[in-house]
UniProtKB/TrEMBL annotation:
Gene designation per UniProt: coaE
Residues reported in the UniProt entry to bind ATP: G11, M12, G13, K14, T15, T16
Pfam families per the UniProt record, alphabetical: CoaE (PF01121)
Protein name in UniProt: Dephospho-CoA kinase
Location (main, coarse): cytoplasm
Length: 194
């Protein structure tokens, strides 16, 4: 089974592109989706203990948590030390299930692939990219997003150019949905032939 990892900086189009891989029949595991599940479940008491008053009715309040960690690298590290091992365990269970079903290709959508060293677990890497002005426009149009918040996030992520230099495949989402879909189809074809 080929483990194909998908990554990219904020707003580059990872989630949208991962849905295109799913539409091609590949099982897809999203680290972000797992974090959302964990924050409404078993991670909530751990986070409340480390960051008091960030959990409301048993669910992590992401806005509160974000305000506590985004400009405090030490706090972010403490949060990651709680969350990343749980995500990693879910990822392993997903890969095992895909192997059991004899899948030829499994996709891991991992926003912080290079930053967390997860790239060593991948057979091939797809970097999802778009021109910087497209990225900014997309991200700044989200509710609650500000220039300052975007700068803080970008400062914690590996620059897009560096990510692209490490990619086996690149999907540029700056040319519309159809172009991205064609790129995804070609990647799936290449991977299934490996
Ligand atoms: C800080 C939190 C609460 C902010 O939540 P929010 O819903 O506002 O934003 P979201 O999760 O969509 O992230 C926005 C952007 O920040 C990036 N980002 C998230 N966590 C991190 C991090 N640890 N380091 C660098 N960038 C990060 C994401 O890739 C995304 O591009 C949340 O991102 C979080 O809990 N992060 C820690 C867990 C983690 O590392 N998740 C990343 C995938 S495993
Ligand atoms: N191929 C594409 N063509 C046009 N628009 C796209 C394309 N791919 C993604 N987009 C748009 O870009 C925006 C960001 O996409 P998406 O949410 O998939 O990004 P992301 O990388 O997962 O974001 P984040 O890092 O914040 O989780 C969305 O509005 C989406 O519709």
């Amino acid at each position: 089974m080929i483990v194909l990892c998908l990554t990219g900086s904020i707003g580059m189009g990872k989630t949208t592109t991962s849905h295109m891989f799913a539409a091609e029949g590949a099982p897809v595991h999203s680290a972000d989706a797992v974090v959302h599940q964990l924050y409404a479940g078993k991670a909530a008491p751990l986070i409340e203990a480390a960051f008091p008053e960030t959990v409301v009715n048993g669910v992590v309040d992401r806005e509160q948590l974000s305000a506590r960690v985004l400009d405090d690298p030490k706090a972010l590290k403490r949060l990651e030390a709680i969350v990343h091992p749980l995500v990693r365990a879910e990822e392993e269970a997903f890969l095992e299930a895909a192997r059991q079903r004899s899948a030829r290709l499994a996709v891991l959508d991992v926003p912080l692939l290079f930053e967390t060293g997860a790239d060593s677990r991948c057979d091939r890497i797809v970097v999802v990219t778009a021109p910087p002005e497209v990225q900014r426009e997309r991200v700044l149009s989200r509710p609650g997003m500000t220039e300052a918040k975007l700068e803080a996030i970008l400062a914690r992520q590996m620059p897009d150019e560096e990510k692209r230099a490490r990619a086996d495949f690149i999907v540029d989402t700056g040319n519309g949905m159809e172009a991205a879909r064609l790129a995804v189809k070609a990647i799936v074809k290449r991977c299934r032939a490996l």
